[in-house]
Design brief:
Helix content: under 10%
Strand order of the largest sheet: 2-3-6-9-8
Order of helices and strands: EEEEEEEEEEE
Number of helices: 0
Radius of gyration: 15 Å
Number of strands: 11
Distance between the termini: 38 Å
Largest sheet: 5 strands, antiparallel
Shape: elongated
Structural class: mainly beta
Length: 142
């Protein structure tokens, strides 16, 4: 089964909503590549993920993240609570989101490359993180 996930969207699968702030196609062995322009000397949020159960609106634990650092910049992850958007199931409820940002080294311009792997539970009550999505980013630092 393939799910098309788009920016700031929530996808419901077997009562579980997975919210992403990146655009990609997900399947059981998900790995994607994404190119993006970023400003030199600035920090850019490149991705985020949160999971919740649409049956009872319970938030899953914060997604875990693994980062493969680029040669000419730094990837950092940070956690935030985010409210479910109006018009969606469970609107107004708080989700546990993990975000990732990229900051190029001072003075660097050109292409840089890093990798982000998000892991999350198969359902909102699970304690084991069993689903993973990997994205390799190519940053065009301008």
């Amino acid at each position: 089964m393939t799910l098309n996930l788009t920016t700031r969207a929530s996808v419901v699968c077997a009562g579980l909503a997975v919210a992403f702030a990146a655009t990609f196609v997900a399947d059981p062995a998900f790995a994607a590549r994404k190119k993006m322009d970023v400003r030199a000397g600035a920090t850019t949020t490149i991705s985020s993920m949160g999971v919740y159960n649409t049956s009872n609106c319970n938030a899953a634990p914060y997604p875990k993240v693994w980062l493969k650092q680029p040669k000419n910049g730094v990837l950092k992850s940070f956690k935030r609570r985010v409210r479910v958007e109006k018009g969606r199931k469970c609107a107004g409820k708080m989700l546990n989101y993990t975000f990732v940002s990229y900051t190029p080294k001072p003075g660097f311009r050109g292409d840089d490359r890093g990798k982000v792997v998000f892991s999350f539970p198969s359902h909102a009550g699970a304690t084991v993180h069993s689903k993973a999505y990997s994205t390799t980013y190519t940053f065009n630092v301008k």
